[in-house]
């Protein structure tokens, strides 16, 4: 104001003094002798030595500085971070963190916006996505101690994120908070390791592999309270949480028996199926339904037998060593399949997100790019068949009313609602979209004893909506959301692929699934 009004400024100061001699109204805001007050607290860019200062603020202030004015703020030197967990340069961390301009939109609690499930139930600053960006910016700028990365307090704040990606989608600046959080969690775990309950989640595939050998013995035990009490005490898995039954024979073994693990010789469109943990060990019927639908459309399917789980739980708890190993293994295997002409399909949205998006945080090479560009979530692929006029529409009617939930990780792929669209093609089926936000399951987050109640609070809107007597069953693509949707009701929740297969006359078991009420401690 002093620069703008020049000679009038002292007069303005005197008038203000007459009305406010104590200086209690907006002290120092407009009428102040402090020339630097308007730029002192601006966020200055963080730059590695030698890099040009590219921020809009810097160029604006640099060009408008006049004699007598305060000098523009200089860039903060970038801290030398040599051991980053993801495959990126500290400058990229700084650039993503400083994209956050503090608007606070990520503190919203309104629907149908999804961000942030944590902030919605605990509306405190540390639960907001913005807090995570601020902490990382503090570390790369040197404002916070480097040792903060290995402090429990910082980890507790980063743990208020389960990588649903909703903030990345809805933030006006598109700040990639899940990537920043992964870096911070990874740094902590690299220094301090993980607790037993996280170790159990990271190695769920090993447990499931052993468990499937004893499935006839373990499955009845899963429905007993004493066994679930033992599981909670020994492994940290919430005793009240409904769990899926183990398949006596995992899908990969069934596929081998059916010779789907042999490469396909045919030309034309062909698919390599990546099943991930749930469809392999708990719901092989789902993967078989998908193969049945593809075969019906004349699309040959190859199941790479050496595939491993995608590794979402490892990423979520910050166990980057295992996540990297899984990413390297799956990427090399699937890139090879792509080179042989396969398109990669997976029925699990979280696995699709890993293959398309999250693996590239660790592996920015030719193989990772090839896999990312040639992978689709299964319903997305089938919906594309439909829009290309190649989907068989000879469905038999299903007389049922469903509540459909769009999983956050499918939403994060920005492909619309392909599963819901497919369901709407089936005659007789009434589909309601459930707009109650995130299910709160957060992959394996809601399995843990200490997160069980938090997870239920996050998903309560969705569970309550499903209790509506008008809705007969739930539908969703994500196995974790299914677990949450069946938690508070006796209604089943089915993958759209299973309903589609049933409508094609391929999966008669769905008839029973739709009519039978669920059990207390196990999923349908
Ligand atoms: S993370 Fe995005 S939405 Fe949240 S304060 Fe920063 S810019 Fe705004
Ligand atoms: S990714 Fe999801 S849980 Fe994590 S901060 Fe963003 S909105 Fe919150």
Give the SSE layout.
Layout: H1 2-5, H2 8-19, H3 37-40, E1 46-47, H4 56-64, E2 76-77, H5 90-99, H6 117-121, H7 129-141, H8 152-158, H9 166-170, H10 177-192, H11 196-202, H12 204-213, H13 215-222, H14 225-235, H15 251-257, E3 270-273, H16 276-282, H17 284-296, E4 301-302, H18 312-317, H19 320-339, E5 342-346, H20 349-362, H21 366-373, E6 375-377, H22 378-387, E7 400-404, H23 408-411, H24 418-423, E8 429-433, H25 452-466, E9 473-475, H26 479-487, E10 493-494, H27 496-503, H28 509-515
Parallel strand pairs: 1-2, 3-4, 3-5, 5-6, 7-8, 7-9, 9-10
Helix pairs in contact: 5-7, 7-10, 8-10, 16-17, 17-27, 19-20, 19-21, 20-21, 25-26
Domain module count: 4
Task: Name the strands of the widest sheet in spatial order.
Answer: 4-3-5-6
Overall, the morphology is elongated
Query: Sheet bearing the most strands, described?
Result: 4 strands, parallel
């Amino acid at each position: 104001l002093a620069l703008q009004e020049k000679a009038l400024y002292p007069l303005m100061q005197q008038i203000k003094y007459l009305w406010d001699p104590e200086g209690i109204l907006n002290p120092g805001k407009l009428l102040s002798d402090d020339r630097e007050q308007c730029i002192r607290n601006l966020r200055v860019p963080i730059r590695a030595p030698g890099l040009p200062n590219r921020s809009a603020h810097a160029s604006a202030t640099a060009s408008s500085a006049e004699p007598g004015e305060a000098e523009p703020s200089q860039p903060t030197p970038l801290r030398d971070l040599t051991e980053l967990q993801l495959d990126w340069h500290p400058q990229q961390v700084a650039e993503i963190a400083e994209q956050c301009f503090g608007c606070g939109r990520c503190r919203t609690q309104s629907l149908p916006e999804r961000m942030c499930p944590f902030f919605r139930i605990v509306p405190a600053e540390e639960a907001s996505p913005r807090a995570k960006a601020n902490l990382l910016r503090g570390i790369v700028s040197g404002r916070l101690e480097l040792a903060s990365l290995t402090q429990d307090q910082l980890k507790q704040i980063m743990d208020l994120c389960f990588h649903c990606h909703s903030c990345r989608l809805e933030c006006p600046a598109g700040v990639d908070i899940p990537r920043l959080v992964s870096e911070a969690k990874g740094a902590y775990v690299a220094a301090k390791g993980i607790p037993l309950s996280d170790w159990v989640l990271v190695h769920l595939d090993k447990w499931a592999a052993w468990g499937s050998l004893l499935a006839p013995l373990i499955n009845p035990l899963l429905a007993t309270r004493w066994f679930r009490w033992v599981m909670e005490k020994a492994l940290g898995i919430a005793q009240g949480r409904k769990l899926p039954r183990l398949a006596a024979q995992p899908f990969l073994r069934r596929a081998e028996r059916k010779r789907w693990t042999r490469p396909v010789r045919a030309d034309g469109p062909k698919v390599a199926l990546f099943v991930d943990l749930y469809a392999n060990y708990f719901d092989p019927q789902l993967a078989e339904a998908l193969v049945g639908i593809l075969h019906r459309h004349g699309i040959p399917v190859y199941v790479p037998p050496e595939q491993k789980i995608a590794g979402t739980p490892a990423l979520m708890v910050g166990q980057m060593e295992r996540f990297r190993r899984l990413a390297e293994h799956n990427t090399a295997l699937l890139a090879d399949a792509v080179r042989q002409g396969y398109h990669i399909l997976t029925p699990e949205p979280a696995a699709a997100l890993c293959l398309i998006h999250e693996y590239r945080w660790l592996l920015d090479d030719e193989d990772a790019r090839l896999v990312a560009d040639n992978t689709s979530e299964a319903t997305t692929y089938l919906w594309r068949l439909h829009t290309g006029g190649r989907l068989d529409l000879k469905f038999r009617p299903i007389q049922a009313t469903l509540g459909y939930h769009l999983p956050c990780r499918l939403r994060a792929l920005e492909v619309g609602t392909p599963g819901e669209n497919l369901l709407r093609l089936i005659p007789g089926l009434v589909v309601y979209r459930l707009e109650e936000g995130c299910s709160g399951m957060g992959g394996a987050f809601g399995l843990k004893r200490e997160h069980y109640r938090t997870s239920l609070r996050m998903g309560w809107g969705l569970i309550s909506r499903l209790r509506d007597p008008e809705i007969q069953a739930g539908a969703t693509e994500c196995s974790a959301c299914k677990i949450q949707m069946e938690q508070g009701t006796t209604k089943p929740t089915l993958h759209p692929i299973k309903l589609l297969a049933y409508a094609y006359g391929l999966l008669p078991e769905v008839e029973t699934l739709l009519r039978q009420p669920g059990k207390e401690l196990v999923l349908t």
